[in-house]
Amino acid sequence: MTVLPASNLLAGESSPYLRQHADNPVNWRPWSAASLAEAKELQRPILLSVGYAACHWCHVMAHESFEDDAVAAVMNRLFVNIKVDREERPDIDQIYMAALTAMGEQGGWPLTMFLTPDARPFWGGTYFPREARYGRPGFIQVLEAVARTWEERRSELDRSASALSDHVRARLAPPADGPLFGEGAFRDYAKAIHSSIDPAKGGLRGAPKFPNAPMMNVLRLSWLLDGEASHRDAVVHSLRNMLAGGIYDHLGGGLCRYSTDDSWLVPHFEKMLYDNAQLIDLAGWAYAETGDELFRVRIEETMGWLSREMLVPGGGFASSLDADSEGEEGRFYLWTEAEIADVLGRADADRFLSSYQVTAPANWEGDPVLHRLAAKDFGPADDDPAVRAMKSRLLEARERRVRPARDDKVLVDWNGMTISALARAGRQFGRNDWIDLAANAFRFVTESADGERLPHSISPNRRLFPGLASDYAAMIGAAVSLCEATGDQIHVDRAWEWMAALDRWHADEAATGYYLTASDAADVPMRIRGDVDEATPSATSLVLEAMTRLAMLTSDATLHERVLAAADAACRRIASQRYGQAGILHAAEIARRPRKLIVVEGPDTGLVSVANRFPDRARTDIVYAGGRSDAGRITLPDGSTIDLSTPGAWLCMGQTCLPPVRAAAELNALLRRPG
User: Fold this and answer.
1) Is the pLDDT of residue 309 over 60?
2) Residue finishing a domain among 544, 572, 593
3) Are residues 216 and 99 part of one domain?
4) What pLDDT digit, counting tens, does each position of 471-501 carry?
5) Tell me, what DSSP letter sits at residue 445?
6) Which of 67, 198, 611, 659 has a CA-to-CA distance to 55 between 20 and 30 Å?
């Protein structure tokens, strides 16, 4: 008999999100082989609830329903109840979110799905209120209706579940039978994104407004490779507006998840590690392009937030900060003019509010949102020492408030993305302390591995194995970025170890791509590819980009041929995909048109510092110390050789290398020129 105790089993879980629900009267189980076996034993449908620690509406549903004895009694009587942290188990989340959208429903969290005892989905939704409102039925009504339908129409539901599962499998692990990836596909997609940009406010038109980093990266690459100036301008414009709006934390640094309006004003206040890793990358590029000090200031502020609020003991980075505190979304971050005056005094408050504003938009129930959206000149005021001092005083006062909860689990893929961003920013701004932060996080993750195997999630009392393809890809990318920043070849060795593990545990049967889940993952209902972008680039895109960068760094032609084949297969798989293709198209174009910069540095040439000032994820940088007569020679991608005794810089695009430049000013001009 595999029936588990009739009690809540979440107290011993490592996930802070699961432990948030450990005191619920619901008999929650974690996702596990034992929980699935119990459902089969009882022949009882599964109620699957998926969320994450920083999710506001997850908290709302928990307070209304999961903490309610009457609701819990119905759940316990009718279902096997399984709770999943989507950040720990993105593979499970993606399967059932795809099922929900296949039903014609809009996705989101909390995800509430009803499954057959063998874990096939047959119906679901997102948030359900305790009582009927918002045009939604009450949750007890839903539970009883689903259970009644299961008893009365089981064979019909079984057929529906099988068809839905087949659809999800075809969507998330499709064959590579689409059209060939043509040279125009990337350009066409970039144009399509650009046509959807809000010309006034930046970002995609409408509300809510998300940072949409994968799409912004496509536009950025379109400028870097093809010189589409309007695409560059759209990204810069979008960044300027979001970094002045309420979605950005102007006191503590860091970007919130999204804005609920179309003006970047009212945020959904959760703060995610991955959003800010991607922000640092985009803002660094924007600063190199424009010289606008706004971007430098926002990077410095976000770095301050990362090091102050997100570091865990040992050097890794926590996953997120909650949207709520004291039971209210945004309470920690909101200010009235009177509160600002209490902290700063009337005169300084007036000066501060000439640069910043607090606005309570229509239908907003909380205190006003601090922002800079109406300011004509964003940069200088933020860099003004007096204004910075005022912000510091307000931040100090804010720190005395009840803080939002922090999800302390260290996710390997999100940390890999952050390490890469820190390493690039450290090079760009000459901040060795940022590179040190990256190196410490890299060491934290490396020391958490079990031989060649990476975990996906690291908590003080548990490491969650096996890792996902995204974990290996992000850490390979991190290793390459750290090698670029430090020259330490140990990072290259690590990258090859993880590449071998990725091949061993995640490669498909045809050796043309990778599955998100490992071949020995025992509790997944189906193996999926990980082709679809979410707020982060897809796992497949991370793999393609990491393989390309490792191939360029090590001049490994065989690996580059492999990534081209994998990119072709991935592009064929997404040919009919309606959304979420940006990451793969971006990574495939980097693989197809890789850029490599070889710098032979000499005394006082300044070539390396110029290269560092122009960060480019589509370019891999290799630095050699020149100036010695016995330095030897190396071979360039075009087959020619260069003498390492003579300083210079060679920019290669694919197998074509431009003539060398010898002076910093020449390299500056070369790297500023697209194409």
Assistant:
1) yes
2) 593
3) no
4) 999 999 999 999 999 999 999 999 999 999 9
5) H
6) 198
Burial class (CB in 10 A: 0-12, 13-18, 19+), 173: middle
Q: Which two tokens stand for residue 441?
A: 């996080």
Q: Provide CB contacts within 8 A for 288, sequence distance 6+.
A: 428, 613, 614, 615
Mean predicted confidence (pLDDT) in 446-465: 95
Q: For residue 542, which of 553, 531, 552, 551 has the smallest C-alpha distance?
A: 531
Residues 247 and 323 occupy one common structural domain: yes
CA dist., res. 366 & res. 662, Å (int) = 59
Task: Give Cβ neighbours of residue 305 (< 8 Å, ≥ 6 apart).
Answer: 249, 252, 253, 254, 271, 276
Do 610 and 588 reside in the same domain of the chain? no
511-535 as b/e: b if 16+ CB within 10 A: ebbbbbbbeebeebbbbbbbbbbbe
Q: What is the CATH number of the domain that holds 553?
A: 1.50.10.20
Dist CA 148 CA 150 (whole Å): 5
Whether 600 and 584 map to the same domain: the answer is no
Three-state secondary-structure class, residue 272: strand
Give the side-chain half-sphere CA count within 13 A for 45.
30
- The per-residue pLDDT for 375 is 47
Backbone angles phi, psi at 458, to 5 degrees: -125, 120
At 364 the pLDDT is 76
- Report yes or no on 554 lying in a domain: yes
- Locus of tokens 């229509």: 362
Chain center to CA of 593? 24
Residue 269, classed as helix, strand or coil, is coil
Of 382, 407, 432, the domain-final residue? 407
CB-CB contact of 158 with 199 (8 Å): no
Question: 95: number of CA atoms within 13 Å, CB side?
Answer: 24
Alpha-carbon distance of 211 to 242, in angstroms, equals 8
Q: Omega before 174 cis (within 30°)?
A: no
Token pair of 390, please?
């005022």
Domain with 102 in it? 16-172
- What was the pLDDT predicted at 675? 73
pLDDT band at residue 377 under the 50/70/90 scheme:
low
Distance CA 341, CA 346 (A): 5
Whether residue 157 is found in the same domain as residue 209: no
Say whether both 336 and 198 belong to one domain. yes
